């Protein structure tokens, strides 16, 4: 009788799903649905990369670039696949309980003007209207740092006009703004627009930092409490991200097919987007990436985009390093 009672109790515990019993860990994943995050997020979802690592994934899409970070601060998501680097560095410096576990997006953008514009150099942007991502985004922070450090243009020397890439491209056509910082993937999807490049983020950042590492636009941001509650799951999340990235590099046709369905792109546009995969995405947190992010924080601080100091704990390479042991 005693053995029957023990077995019954064990069965009840299984039914309750108490911690410690075998079950899939759940991770709530957020990303910006209208930005460059869309491509990686769509591939991650369609390929069920999280599920293949034994995770239960819940995807939450946001219409605003800074919304995933705000949602994480509120405890609504556990992992943001491409949080704005500027915002992520700011909130971790402020001591919010979250950690940067990956560099996930490279700032692959160009400063462009209409082909018939009288603007010829970056210095000519003084007093002009410049379109860029909303304040708080990595793009806005990097653009501000480049303009001030390389060309002496403070925020008061020009008018920053916020918007997503499609809106900024429209503003350029309508001559509502004089210049814009647009992603290369956006430019690839607008081949008929007559634009002239003034400079690239990569080249400008290299001049600014005197380092070859490109600026990081987006980072994988993870909630500390979730990491503590699910000690094995963070490495699985990173392993899924790495495998999704490798898939995108190896099979551009499959990526294009996923993008057609997720973003309603034409064959030509989907292929153009997929062709840029290797240059716009990354999944890494090697020592060089950590050094680059720390340098990025210093640059942002110098132009007033972030404040305080960046604690070493804000950059957490543990999940990335452990992910390398997952086959």
Write a concise keyword list for the protein shown above.
single chain, 327 residues, alpha/beta, D-Maltodextrin-Binding Protein, domain 2, 2 domains, six-stranded mixed β-sheet, five-stranded mixed β-sheet, 16 helices, 11 strands, 47% helix
Summarize the structure.
The protein has 327 residues and is α/β, with parallel strands linked by helices. It has 16 helices and 11 strands. The longest helix has 18 residues.
> In percent, how helical is the residue content?
40-55%
CATH topology of the largest domain: D-Maltodextrin-Binding Protein, domain 2
Structural class category: alpha/beta
Under the CATH scheme, the architecture of the largest domain is 3-Layer(aba) Sandwich
Q: What's the count of strands?
A: 11
Query: What is the mean pLDDT?
Result: 88
Number of DSSP helices? Answer: 16
> What general form does the structure show?
globular
How is the quaternary structure best described? single chain
How would you write the strand order of the largest sheet? 2-1-3-10-4-11
Show the helix and strand layout.
Blueprint: H1 2-16, E1 25-32, H2 37-46, H3 49-52, E2 55-62, H4 67-73, E3 79-84, H5 85-93, E4 98-106, E5 109-114, E6 129-132, H6 138-151, E7 159-162, H7 165-173, E8 179-183, H8 184-188, E9 195-200, H9 201-209, E10 216-223, H10 224-229, H11 233-250, H12 252-263, H13 267-275, H14 277-280, E11 281-284, H15 287-302, H16 318-323
Parallel strand pairs: 1-2, 1-3, 6-7, 6-8
Antiparallel strand pairs: 3-10, 4-10, 4-11, 5-8, 5-9
Helix pairs in contact: 2-12, 6-9, 6-15, 12-13
């Amino acid at each position: 009788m005693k053995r029957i009672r023990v077995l019954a109790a064990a069965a009840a515990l299984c039914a309750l799903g108490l911690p410690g019993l075998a079950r899939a860990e759940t991770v709530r994943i957020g990303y910006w649905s209208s930005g460059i995050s869309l491509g990686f997020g769509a591939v991650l979802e369609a390929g069920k990369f999280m599920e293949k690592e034994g995770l239960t994934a819940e995807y939450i899409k946001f219409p605003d670039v800074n919304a995933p970070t705000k949602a994480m601060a509120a405890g609504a998501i556990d992992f943001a696949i491409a949080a704005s680097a500027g915002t992520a560095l700011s909130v971790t410096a402020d001591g919010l309980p979250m950690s940067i576990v990956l560099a996930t997006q490279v700032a692959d953008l160009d400063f462009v003007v209409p082909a018939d514009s009288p603007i010829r150099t970056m210095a000519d942007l003084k007093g002009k209207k410049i379109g860029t991502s909303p304040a708080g985004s990595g793009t806005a922070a990097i653009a501000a740092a480049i303009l001030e450090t390389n060309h002496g243009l403070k925020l008061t020397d020009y008018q920053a006009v916020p918007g997503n890439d499609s809106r900024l491209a429209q503003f350029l056509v309508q001559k509502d703004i004089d210049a814009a910082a647009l992603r290369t993937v956006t430019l690839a999807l607008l081949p008929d627009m007559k634009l002239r490049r003034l400079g690239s983020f990569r080249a400008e950042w290299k001049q600014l930092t005197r380092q070859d590492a490109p600026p990081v636009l987006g980072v994988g941001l993870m909630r500390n409490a979730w990491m503590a509650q699910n000690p094995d799951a963070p490495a699985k999340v990173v392993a899924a991200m790495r495998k999704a990235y490798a898939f995108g590099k190896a099979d551009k046709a499959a990526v294009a097919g996923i993008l057609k369905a997720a973003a309603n792109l034409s064959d030509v546009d989907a292929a153009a987007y997929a062709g840029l995969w290797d240059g716009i995405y990354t999944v890494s947190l090697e020592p060089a990436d950590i050094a680059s992010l720390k340098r990025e924080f210093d640059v942002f601080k110098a132009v007033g985009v972030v404040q305080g100091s960046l604690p070493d704990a804000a950059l957490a390479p543990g999940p990335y390093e452990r992910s390398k042991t997952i086959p």
